[in-house]
Write the structure tokens for this entry.
Amino acid sequence: MSTELLAPLDLAFWHLESETHPMHLGALAVFDPVPGVTPQDLLELLGARAAAIPRLRMRVRDVLLPVGGAAWFTDKDFDVQRHVRRVVLPGGDFMAEATRLAGELMERPLGRGLPPWQMYLLDSPGDGPFAVLVKLHHALADGMRAVAIGAGIFDQIASAGAGRGAVRRRTPVPPRSWLPGPYEAAGMAMDRLGDVRRALGVGASVVRASRLDLRAGTALTARSSGTRRLATADLDAGAVQRIRRTEGGTANDVLLAVVAGGLRRWMLERGEPLPGADPRALVPVSRRRPGGAATGNRLSAYLLGLPVGEPDPRERLRLVRTGMDRNKTAGPMRGAGAVAVLADQLPALAHRFGAPLAGSAARVLFDILVTSVPLPRSALSLGGCPLRAVYPMAPLARGQSLAVALTTYGGGVQVGLVADGKALPDLDRLARAVREELHDLHALVPTVPAPA
């Protein structure tokens, strides 16, 4: 039976979960139909391709060593039918029904006695579009790894894997004693001292960034109701790139400024006073290296004040660029947002017993999560049905009401907004405000002639 210890950050995500704070990532992939491909065909195809992904056959169990640790075990009783299901939506507006149901399904924690993932085929009567909702526990994968796992359902990735032959297998590792020898024990002790030094450095950055003036009662920070609501927005990737070429910075800078402007519009529309201090965004940064370890979360993050108090859209973008440049100069390993790096340095027992405290501490550092998820640039399909759009979804931290995830596919930027359903019942208005913000920012930017 294959086993693999959970890395410290994976273990943190596993223990941070509660009934009202599920720690899974998600994505709603929307497809156009093709004649002759039935929902039953798609359901069987999803099941077969998911079952062929070795990572999706593994579940978590506690282990004796390290104390407080857990490991991934291949589930000898794995049954893909427990994970892949079909839901027929009522007629009407397909996207409205699909996003409503996806929000409800994202409320439910994944079963901890099974491999922690689910897929739902969402279709409606007739020959209209259909969608696949994917849920993966954050302990199973970070955003980049989730894409690599979830992409295995697409025709292009599945056929490429079949063309390469059998699934790559790891070289068997001979059994070893849990008790290290004297030289190994000395090496482990030195490694732990290095971990402690790194943890102290990162911890000092995190403490310096912590706030005592928590913003109680704002829309972004509210007591959790355990409910979830999803809203989506589609942005023009060409407009984002034109703004970037004119104003400088990165496409991500532009999108962060658009989120800030969308929040400002939305707050003013609902009659909410703008905060005296900019709300803080946690912007995850991948520490995954090409050719490096394929499993486990490899994350750090930047902290960025979203300039919702600034009325000029171009000035908001300049402020975002300046803040992100400052973060990049500090680096993801030393900056104030490197709380995930700190989690990587802590022993398993600290995660098991410190999770409730750590979960409540998120509000001390940030108000909203804004993350970008990379997708393959090539056109994708499922059973020959072309992929139209993918709306990523991020988990909510305890005491926070909104998480924003963005990805680029097919000439567009798709935005997935996940919110506490009771704290933000008007999430669709925020999605509209984000679309309007990009339109207005683009209109203000001088036209740059295309290179000859």
The chain has a mean pLDDT of 81. Residues 68 and 350 are 8 Å apart (CA to CA).
